[in-house]
Amino acid sequence: MTPTDVYATTNQEALSSALAMIDLRRFAGKTVPIKLHMGEPGNPCFVRPELARLVADAIRHARGHPFLFDTVVAYPGDRSHRRGYERVAQQHGFTRANVGCHVVIGERGVRVLEADVPIEVASQIYDADCMLVLSHVKGHIQAGFGGAIKNLGMGGVTKASKRRVHSMSMPLHDAHTCTLCGLCVPACPSRALTVDSEWHINRRACEGCGKCVLACTTGALQFEHMSLARGLAISAMACIRNMDVVYVNSLHNIVENCDCDCSPGRVLCQDVGYLAGTGAAAVDAASLDLIDQVEPQVFERYTGVDPREQVACAVTLGMNDQYVLHRL
Ligand code: SF4
Ligand code: SF4
Q1: Residues of 37-46 as b/e, b for ≥16 C-beta within 10 angstroms?
Q2: At which of 181, 199, 225 does a domain end?
Q3: How far away, in angstroms, is 179 Cα from ligand 2 center?
Q4: Residue 155 in contact with ligand 1 by CB distance below 6 A
Q5: What's this model's pTM, rounded to 2 decimal places?
Q6: Which residue's C-alpha comes closest to atom 6 of ligand 2?
Q7: Atom 3 of ligand 2 has which residue's CA nearest to it?
Q8: Distances, alpha carbon 177 to alpha carbons 174, 199, 216, in Å
Q9: Are strands 4-9 and 323-327 parallel, antiparallel or unpaired?
Q10: Which phi and psi (to 5°) does residue 148 adopt?
Q11: pLDDT tens digits for range 228-271
């Protein structure tokens, strides 16, 4: 695979030059969601509105039509519903006056199948044919770190899919042990199972609830547990398949905790700058490499989780993590 060009800068002026080199004319005449996290109350380390303004202006300059976009969260709180998240976004400075475009919070999705896993991609992302993903790089207690893959994999999908990615499990069937008794069929609330001369599962319909596993008395069904890293990679891939996407990672306020946490925790690494490119795995891999140069393996030391697993899983799904770094 040809390596992706990734541009590294330490200031916003140079970031504008990097976006010009990536050539945002690809967005001309198109509606462009800017996927970003607009902050959890209590955690001030989200991407700044000024940075959102910079990328929105760059898209407008290329004759695209940007809007800021995020989805409601699956846990209780202000951001669990559209109105509440709109209020939080406004309180955090993401207003039309500040960023020059409107803010859209998505609640609904369209179900797609990625790596045999049904994922509900936010309708606004599903309907777009291009996107800019603006991500704050920081730690994450379960996933090791959060960057572009996590921004999409958790933030680009509906509440149901967020829950699913967090505890992803699908039944694994052992045909040798199965007696074709059919007990699992009525146990499935999603009508995903049929049993005749064979056992069948409709993976698009399966919600991973596990009721069939509990109903089976022979041990023919077991859970297939998937790591959060692989779930995030699958979900991110579902969001971007067949889409033209530009990524900007902000390596500032590199703190212990995810933007969804109401407390950022300690700063793990000094500010590194901005990275921009056209591949999620490449931009995330470059982010981890640059942070390693300053604070080697800082995310592993804090979380005990390998942050590169997300990138490795994304590569198995077809993303390219090879990159050439250009410093501006
Ligand atoms: S895990 Fe749940 S939804 Fe999936 S097949 Fe089993 S019972 Fe049905
Ligand atoms: S309940 Fe178990 S043994 Fe019976 S059909 Fe379903 S998987 Fe096979």
Answers
A1: bbbbeebebb
A2: 225
A3: 6
A4: no
A5: 0.84
A6: 184
A7: 178
A8: 6, 11, 11
A9: parallel
A10: -70, -45
A11: 899 999 999 999 998 999 999 999 999 999 998 888 999 999 99
